[in-house]
């Protein structure tokens, strides 16, 4: 580990350094040096002297710092004298730089400061272009400024040669004064400086930058700092909108400034190409009524101390978002905080105790990753007025632990002084505090009362102080000793009186670094720190166990000392009265603007827990566009759904918010592996549920839905979901995922949930199935599902060769999907997602709607008209479908119901207060047979057996509504109503044929309490008119809307659909959850559509939601109230078009 230094300045301007390779503080060799502030970087430290000059201390290294000065001697040939330094008036100077624009005679070169010395005299560079030359270093050319070469030609009229001289930096290891700018005007006296920027995120290991603040509030930037020019060359003023009091630069591209009005400025646009940045952004002080006092930044952290000495942490800060996202309050009171390498934190404590021997004391503390290995132990009782040395460091020893225990009689030798003689604590707020603190030295030293002198009754009323495990207890020797002799004597006395104070009552301290006695720091001269800088101090995780930092930390005399600690690990940040943890990673983001492509991004999830238990989380996505750093952020409490999606065989998922749902613009991210995607989904889902207070299994009133990918989603509704006024908008609904893979799900308000897989397997929900991605998935049932993937082979007929794969230029691809818009071959077609695996080979599919010939072909006159299974004279194109099966295996709260495979299922809806011993469940087998499940109840949700209901043709859709109304659709589109169904006769008696809408073929229907809705093959939604208890078959069909894929009618006759698309978004993937607004007893057909989450949704079930909204307006618990959405129906309402005749018994 390289040796680094921690720097500190006391009230007298004396500079100290503490090496990571040493065990004690060392004072600077220059005893006359007095500095006000220091700022450290890698291998160097800058300071502002009391004479207002800037000083630099470069750490000694094996390689010396050398700088090469060079100048060029120029000559021109003439016929009389040959080559001479007599040039034409238009020529360059006889001695100049390489460009010839600036004169540079040898005598004009001067050393920039006393820190440099010449290594030798000027000499000619004998090489030309890096290669040895025999021409004495001369280079020839036709004229200035042509290209020079070492070869002299007949037309070479000018020549030049380079002179070189080296100078060496000799001030390494000492404090050297930086010379004033000449001839430029130097800045006004500086009051603050900050070093940073040596680890720009664009490129690591660069030289540092230096920023300064003048007493008039101007900001200056030091130009020309280079590894060979450590002092820099000149100061450049950076415009600021307001006067600046203090600033802090991080190792990367962060720069924050403190204004005189207490607010803060953030410099944006910092980069290697623009080291001074581009603009300022103002950030308000963390305290509403208290101004900021000090700011310190690191690689990706910002700490602020306000004038009430409270410490604040800025969350969400990084190079993409230098302003951050919010403030977090930290416990304790500090005078200043400094951030070092790897975002390690050093602090200077505000003094609490008023019973000090001299001036107020301060302390320096470093908290590193190793702090997380040890936790606080039980507090011990000590005297509140006694000096207690305490810090959140992993090594703790009693005072004088390295020495032999003193005899008890030494406790009487400790002098005492009245408490009223102790000086009052003074909290400095500017440079003017030095004289005030120094003036305390004139007073006679007053000693602290020892612990042994305290009365026994006082020792019983003690403030707790945390005590950590000590190396001594673990059998390790402590390689350093305490030098606070006044406090040490008191501690030795405390050891002698330990029996009277009880176990562990003796004063305990952390290991302390010693000061050099040779530097004149004695017992009465303990340093009082005014400034610290750890920008160049790198404390390793393991080395921190032996790195001493503390000088003095006193305990608060009135109330228990506030424990203040900071654990910084790659993904966790713990604070005392607030906790923040951060999860960072890398994902791929689908950039859905041109050019659309996957982009590698960094992501971070930050969650803070406030003192009252409330949690606040933000999800960040950091990306770079045209070399400009940008970011996206999503507030977790605004996320409405996290759902896996199918995107180019990536492990992808989409993040929706209300605004992104409206714009149909989800945030799509992809992980490298399935495990990474599941980890992120688990983490984000848990945060979403915690922010909304959701836990446990879905409620009985929940809405269930499935996506085209097979994921099961659930929404726990509020009373306002179906309220007549202030209806909750669909884009505000929060959906959470339930483990499992299904094609459709149906439920009722008694908590019964049935589902059907893509392979027709029936499943019943067995709970608890919390919507949160719980890690206890081993308790779930193993669930498998199989689905088929299809591609179409297309051919066109021509007179010469018959049917061939040579189509017209305007034809669809010869291998495509069903729509013909996308090319899909058997070679480039993959399973729906990486979780699936092939279980069969490609084969011709003969089970295609419309039928096929013996080879599986379907014929049509042209693309894309309707195909049929036999060839005619007018058929010029044909196609056939190839299928291949794939399988997925997962665990979920689902119990299989063997042995019949189903294609559709329906549970009778009921009100929440209903009580039923047997719940009617109707289903269709994969062959179209009608089935009735017996024995289904809340205690036995899977039921006992299937009862076959006879039909004369196969069915494709079935639904049971209120009062045991059973409706079904045959595969030819005919509609039937089952009569006489009752609890006593669950299978009913006969089927009544209901005429379909004119020239329309229905494919799916849903029955509510008093209404029936159906969807035809053209995606039109129909409503059955005239339903009465005496005439349950109704009288006519009325067209409601188009653009509908599936419909679900609930127990309150509420209507929800899966829309084929969202108006205004033609590129949206089909399948959006939508809600019919305005449905009521007087308006059963509703008024308009409210489009919610989508696309890619396959099925929705509202049949479990029987929560009737209370009368009158009610505020939404899950979000702001909204008025009913405007009319967004994609098709106008039409009057009744058909009237049916009497029902016919079949």
Automatic annotation (TrEMBL):
<dbReference type="Pfam" id="PF06398">
    <property type="entry name" value="Pex24p"/>
</dbReference>
<keyword id="KW-0458">Lysosome</keyword>
<protein>
    <recommendedName>
        <fullName>Tectonin beta-propeller repeat-containing protein 1</fullName>
    </recommendedName>
</protein>
<dbReference type="InterPro" id="IPR006624">
    <property type="entry name" value="Beta-propeller_rpt_TECPR"/>
</dbReference>
<dbReference type="Pfam" id="PF06462">
    <property type="entry name" value="Hyd_WA"/>
</dbReference>
<feature type="domain" description="Peroxin/Ferlin">
    <location>
        <begin position="856"/>
        <end position="889"/>
    </location>
</feature>
<feature type="domain" description="Peroxin/Ferlin">
    <location>
        <begin position="64"/>
        <end position="125"/>
    </location>
</feature>
<comment type="similarity">
    <text>Belongs to the TECPR1 family.</text>
</comment>
<dbReference type="GO" id="GO:0006914">
    <property type="term" value="P:autophagy"/>
</dbReference>
<dbReference type="InterPro" id="IPR010482">
    <property type="entry name" value="TECPR1-like_DysF"/>
</dbReference>
<keyword id="KW-0968">Cytoplasmic vesicle</keyword>
<feature type="domain" description="PH">
    <location>
        <begin position="581"/>
        <end position="691"/>
    </location>
</feature>
<dbReference type="GO" id="GO:0008289">
    <property type="term" value="F:lipid binding"/>
</dbReference>
<dbReference type="Pfam" id="PF19193">
    <property type="entry name" value="Tectonin"/>
</dbReference>
<feature type="region of interest" description="Disordered">
    <location>
        <begin position="1100"/>
        <end position="1146"/>
    </location>
</feature>
<keyword id="KW-0472">Membrane</keyword>
<dbReference type="InterPro" id="IPR001849">
    <property type="entry name" value="PH_domain"/>
</dbReference>
<keyword id="KW-0072">Autophagy</keyword>
<feature type="region of interest" description="Disordered">
    <location>
        <begin position="363"/>
        <end position="385"/>
    </location>
</feature>
<dbReference type="GO" id="GO:0000421">
    <property type="term" value="C:autophagosome membrane"/>
</dbReference>
<dbReference type="InterPro" id="IPR006614">
    <property type="entry name" value="Peroxin/Ferlin"/>
</dbReference>
<dbReference type="GO" id="GO:0005765">
    <property type="term" value="C:lysosomal membrane"/>
</dbReference>
<dbReference type="InterPro" id="IPR051513">
    <property type="entry name" value="Tectonin_beta-prop"/>
</dbReference>
<keyword id="KW-0446">Lipid-binding</keyword>
<feature type="region of interest" description="Disordered">
    <location>
        <begin position="397"/>
        <end position="462"/>
    </location>
</feature>
<dbReference type="GO" id="GO:0031410">
    <property type="term" value="C:cytoplasmic vesicle"/>
</dbReference>
<feature type="domain" description="Peroxin/Ferlin">
    <location>
        <begin position="784"/>
        <end position="845"/>
    </location>
</feature>
<keyword id="KW-0677">Repeat</keyword>
<feature type="domain" description="Peroxin/Ferlin">
    <location>
        <begin position="137"/>
        <end position="170"/>
    </location>
</feature>
């Amino acid at each position: 580990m390289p040796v680094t230094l921690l720097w500190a300045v006391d009230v007298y301007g004396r500079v100290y350094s503490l090496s990571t390779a040493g065990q004690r503080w060392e004072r600077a060799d220059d005893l006359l040096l007095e500095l006000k502030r220091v700022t450290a970087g890698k291998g160097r430290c800058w300071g502002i002297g009391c004479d207002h000059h800037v000083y630099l201390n470069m750490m000694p290294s094996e390689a010396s710092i050398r700088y090469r000065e060079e100048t060029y001697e120029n000559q021109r040939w003439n016929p009389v004298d040959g080559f001479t330094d007599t040039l034409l008036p238009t020529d360059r100077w006889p001695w100049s730089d390489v460009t010839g624009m600036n004169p540079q005679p040898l005598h004009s070169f001067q050393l920039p400061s006393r820190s440099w010395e010449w290594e030798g005299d000027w000499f000619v560079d004998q090489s030309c272009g890096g290669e040895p030359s025999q021409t004495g270093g001369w280079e020839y050319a036709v004229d200035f400024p042509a290209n020079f070469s070492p070869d002299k030609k007949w037309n070479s009229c000018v020549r030049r040669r380079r002179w070189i001289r080296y100078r060496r930096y000799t001030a390494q290891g000492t404090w050297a004064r930086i010379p004033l700018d000449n001839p430029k005007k130097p800045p006004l006296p500086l009051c603050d400086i900050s070093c940073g920027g040596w680890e720009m995120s664009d490129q690591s290991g660069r030289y540092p930058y230096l920023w300064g603040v003048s007493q008039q509030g101007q900001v200056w930037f030091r130009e020309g700092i280079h590894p060979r020019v450590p002092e820099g060359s000149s100061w450049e003023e950076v415009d600021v909108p307001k006067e600046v009091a203090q600033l802090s630069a991080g190792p990367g591209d962060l720069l924050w400034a403190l204004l005189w009005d207490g607010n803060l400025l953030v410099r944006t646009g910092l980069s290697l190409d623009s080291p001074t940045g581009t603009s300022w952004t103002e950030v308000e002080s963390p305290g509403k009524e208290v101004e900021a006092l000090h700011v310190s930044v690191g690689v990706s952290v910002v700490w602020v101390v306000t004038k009430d000495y409270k410490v604040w942490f800025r969350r969400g800060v990084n190079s993409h978002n230098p302003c951050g996202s919010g403030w977090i309050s930290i416990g304790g009171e500090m005078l200043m905080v400094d951030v070092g390498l790897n975002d390690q934190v050093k602090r200077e404590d505000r003094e609490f105790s008023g019973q000090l021997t001299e001036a107020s004391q301060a302390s320096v503390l470093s908290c590193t990753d190793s702090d997380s290995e040890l936790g606080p132990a039980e507090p011990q009782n000590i005297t509140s007025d006694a000096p207690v040395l305490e810090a959140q460091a992993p090594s703790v020893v009693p005072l004088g632990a390295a020495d032999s225990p003193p005899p008890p009689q030494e406790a009487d030798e400790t002098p005492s002084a009245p408490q009223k003689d102790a000086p009052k604590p003074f909290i400095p707020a500017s440079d003017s505090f030095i004289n005030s603190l120094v003036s305390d030295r004139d007073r006679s030293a007053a000693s602290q009362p020892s612990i042994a002198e305290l009365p026994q009754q006082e020792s019983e009323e003690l403030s707790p102080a945390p005590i950590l495990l000590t190396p001594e207890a673990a059998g390790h020797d402590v390689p350093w000793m305490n030098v606070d002799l006044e406090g040490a004597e008191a501690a030795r006395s405390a050891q002698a009186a330990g029996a009277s104070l009880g176990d562990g009552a003796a004063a305990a301290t952390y290991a302390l670094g010693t000061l050099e006695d040779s530097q004149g720091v004695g017992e009465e001269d303990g340093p009082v720190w005014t400034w610290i800088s750890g920008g160049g101090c790198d404390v390793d995780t393991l080395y921190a166990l032996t790195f001493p930092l503390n000088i003095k930390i006193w305990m608060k005399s009135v109330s228990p000392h506030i424990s203040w600690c900071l654990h910084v690990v790659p993904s966790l940040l713990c604070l005392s009265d607030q906790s923040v943890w951060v999860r960072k990673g890398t994902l791929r983001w689908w950039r859905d603007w041109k050019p659309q492509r996957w982009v590698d991004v960094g992501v971070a999830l930050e969650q803070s827990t406030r003192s009252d238990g409330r949690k606040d989380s933000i999800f960040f996505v950091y990306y770079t566009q045209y070399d400009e750093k940008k970011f996206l952020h999503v507030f977790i409490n605004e996320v409405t759904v996290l759902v896996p999606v199918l995107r180019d065989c990536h492990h992808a998922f989409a993040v929706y918010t209300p605004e992104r749902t409206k714009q149909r613009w989800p945030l799509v991210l992809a992980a490298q592996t399935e495990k990474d995607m599941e980890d992120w989904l688990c983490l984000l889902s848990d945060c979403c549920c915690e922010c909304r207070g959701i836990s446990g299994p879905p409620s009985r009133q929940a809405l269930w839905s499935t996506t085209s990918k097979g994921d099961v989603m659930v929404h726990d509704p509020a009373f306002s979901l179906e309220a007549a006024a202030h209806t909750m908008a669909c884009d505000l609904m929060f959906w959470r995922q339930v483990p499992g893979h299904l094609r459709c799900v149906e439920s009722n308000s008694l908590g019964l949930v049935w589902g059907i897989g893509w392979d027709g397997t029936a499943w019943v929900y067995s709970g608890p199935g919390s919507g949160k991605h719980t890690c206890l998935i081993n308790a779930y049932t193993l669930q498998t599902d199989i689905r088929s993937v299809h591609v179409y082979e297309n051919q066109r007929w021509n007179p010469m060769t018959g049917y061939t794969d040579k189509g017209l230029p305007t034809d669809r691809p010869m291998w495509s999907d069903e729509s013909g818009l996308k090319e899909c071959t058997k070679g480039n077609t993959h399973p729906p997602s990486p979780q699936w695996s092939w279980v069969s080979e490609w084969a011709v599919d003969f089970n295609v709607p419309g039928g096929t010939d013996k080879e599986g072909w379907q014929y049509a006159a042209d693309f894309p008209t309707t195909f049929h299974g036999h060839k005619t004279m007018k058929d010029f194109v044909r196609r056939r479908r190839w299928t291949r099966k794939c399988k997925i295996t997962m665990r979920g709260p689902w119990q299989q119901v063997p042995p019949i495979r189903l294609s559709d299922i329906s549970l009778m809806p009921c009100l929440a207060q209903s009580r039923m011993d047997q719940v009617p469940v109707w289903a269709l087998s994969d062959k179209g047979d009608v089935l009735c499940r017996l024995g289904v109840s809340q205690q036995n949700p899977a039921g006992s057996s299937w009862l076959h209901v006879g039909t004369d043709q196969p069915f494709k859709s079935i639904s049971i509504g209120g009062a045991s109304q059973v409706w079904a659709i045959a595969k030819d589109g005919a509609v039937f109503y089952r009569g006489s169904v009752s609890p006593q006769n669950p299978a009913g008696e006969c089927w009544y044929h209901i005429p379909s809408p004119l020239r329309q073929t229905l494919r799916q229907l849903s029955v509510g309490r008093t209404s029936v809705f159906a969807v035809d093959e053209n995606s039109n939604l129909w409503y059955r008119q005239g339903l009465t208890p005496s005439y349950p078959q109704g009288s006519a069909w009325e067209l409601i809307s188009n653009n509908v894929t599936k419909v679900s009618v609930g127990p309150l006759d509420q209507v929800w659909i899966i829309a084929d698309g969202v108006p205004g978004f033609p590129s949206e993937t089909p399948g959006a959850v939508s809600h019919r607004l305005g449905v009521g007893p007087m308006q059963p057909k509703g008024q308009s559509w409210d489009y919610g989450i989508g696309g890619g949704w396959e099925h929705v079930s509202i049949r479990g939601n029987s929560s009737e909204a209370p009368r009158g307006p009610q505020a939404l618990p899950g979000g702001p109230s909204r008025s009913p959405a405007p009319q967004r129906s994609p098709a106008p309402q039409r009057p009744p078009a058909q009237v049916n005749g009497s029902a016919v018994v079949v």
